[in-house]
Design goal:
The protein is α+β, with helices and mostly antiparallel strands. Helix content is 43%, strand content 22%. The chain has 12 helices and 18 strands. It is found in: Membrane.
Length: 462
């Protein structure tokens, strides 16, 4: 709990500070007097001001944003001696630069954070695949448990444009992007498990078949990929559970269930889940390897309710931790990868927003502060490299969101400036008031939907 709250506050603090610092520094560079630099909204709980003529730095109690208040004749009368330091009297290009500086600071921060994550390195699963979902696109393409993905390329593109796959995380990212763009991928595969046909082979994942489907958190499962390969070995066996009562022990490797070979832990878990006859578990005949010997066990799973269906459970941890690899880059490669990942996440964010707007993707994909807090806590526990990568992704999202042409956001102010550049006159006060009210309504709606999605995820409704 403490790591979740701490990670969330640290995430918000860093991103808000950098965003407002971007506005502040460019305003000062353009000769605009900054009256207040605020972290948070509402009642001030801390303040510092070197002199009455300097910027007042404050910390407010609601840490969900911040603002930079500049000298502006539209907000209050300005002494003649300070008119040259007002925001409203600066040239249009300077006002636009001040507005754009906040989101751009978040994007620059994302590049540096992604680069730092690559420099530090993160432990990620090797791209060795678990059993694909039965009947899925991946299974139809020919993927099997234990297949190691070595490289990918866009189908129909340059025959020599193979890109290496350093980890399962990278493979998931490439698949997500390809599905969003409606393009298929060629994969270069090497089988790793006994009994499989060894040697390198190539196959095609027809991701363009998913063009009309939602791109959401369940996308990879619909493709058929459920995780990294894990041996069908039993971990901790709960006392008095079905597995323990059948004589199973920690370290047993399950070879067959009812005569069917077990490819991996995913396949074993699925066989157990399906072993239900009405309200009772169906007894399974397990052949397990223990200490070089093969034993036969009669296991009767317990039946549990899982939503609107019943599943079997044996109350034992199934599967070994996946094999991991340290993914790390040198200084230049890390910076290049940071630039590339920031660009890719920006594109993906805009495409997802457009899909939600046009109804091609569900608004269930919209996340709010509770989801961010949860992921922040998890990434903090996984190490600095993971947390920096998470922070970079949120920073990109904040930068992209603020550049949207919505009143109340930086992109809305840039929209006003674009109107002024075209017509030679600013937006009227009447229309400004109307647009601000409309923009506030849209933002409140988005925040409400995001908060509802957060609560629904916590309650298991999504």
């Amino acid at each position: 709990m403490l790591s979740t709250v701490g990670g969330f506050l640290l995430t918000l603090g860093v991103l808000i500070l950098v965003h407002e610092w971007g506005h502040y520094r460019v305003a000062r560079a353009c000769g605009v007097k900054v009256l207040r630099f605020s972290m948070g909204f509402g009642r001030v709980i801390w303040r510092r001001q070197a002199s009455p003529q300097d910027t007042e730095f404050v910390l407010s109690w609601l840490p969900l944003g911040g603002y930079v208040r500049m000298l502006d004749e539209r907000e209050a009368p300005v002494p003649p001696a300070l008119l040259d330091q007002t925001y409203n009297r600066k040239p249009l290009w300077q006002r636009s630069a001040i507005v754009a500086a906040g989101p751009l600071a978040n994007l620059v921060l994302a590049v540096l954070l992604y680069a730092a994550s690559h420099w530090i390195g993160v432990q990620e699963p090797l791209p060795v695949l678990a059993s694909p979902v039965a009947g899925s696109l991946a299974e139809r393409a020919g993927l099997r448990a234990g297949d190691a993905v070595q490289a990918w390329r866009t189908s129909g593109g340059d025959a020599d444009a193979w890109q290496p796959v350093p980890s399962l995380t990278d493979l998931r990212w490439q698949l997500t992007q390809a599905a969003m763009e409606g393009r298929s991928l060629d994969l270069r595969i090497n089988a790793t498990q006994p009994g499989a046909a060894h040697g390198t082979r190539e196959l095609t994942l027809r991701l363009d078949d998913l063009r009309g489907e939602e791109v959401d958190a369940a996308l990879l499962r619909r493709i058929g990929l459920v995780g990294a390969y894990s041996e069908p070995v039993l971990g901790e066996v709960k006392a008095d559970g079905p597995a323990a009562l059948a004589g199973a022990r920690q370290g047993d490797r399950v070879l067959r269930v009812d005569g069917r070979p077990v490819a991996d832990a995913v396949a074993l878990r699925e066989l157990i889940r399906q072993s239900v006859d009405g309200l009772r578990g169906r007894t399974q005949r397990w052949e397990v390897e223990r200490g070089g010997r093969t034993l036969t066990l009669e296991v009767t799973p317990r039946v549990l309710e899982d939503g609107d269906r019943r599943i079997g459970r044996v109350e034992a941890y199934i599967g070994e931790p996946p094999r991991m690899v340290l993914v790390r880059a040198d200084a230049l490669d890390g910076l290049a990868q940071g630039l590339q990942r920031t660009w890719e996440v920006s594109q993906l964010s805009l495409k997802m927003l457009w899909r939600m707007l046009t109804g091609e993707a569900s608004v269930k994909n919209l996340s709010g502060p509770l989801t961010i807090a949860d992921y922040a806590g998890q990434s903090v526990q996984q190490g600095l490299g993971y947390y920096l990568g998470f922070l970079a992704m949120v920073s990109v999202s904040l930068g992209v969101l603020n550049l949207l042409p919505l009143p109340m956001l930086d992109g809305g102010h840039l929209m006003y400036h674009a109107f002024e550049a075209v017509t030679g006159r600013p937006v009227s006060d009447l229309w400004l008031a109307r647009l601000q009210r409309g923009g506030l309504a849209v933002l409140l709606l988005m925040m409400s939907v995001a908060l509802y999605n957060d609560v629904a995820r916590l309650l298991g409704l999504h």
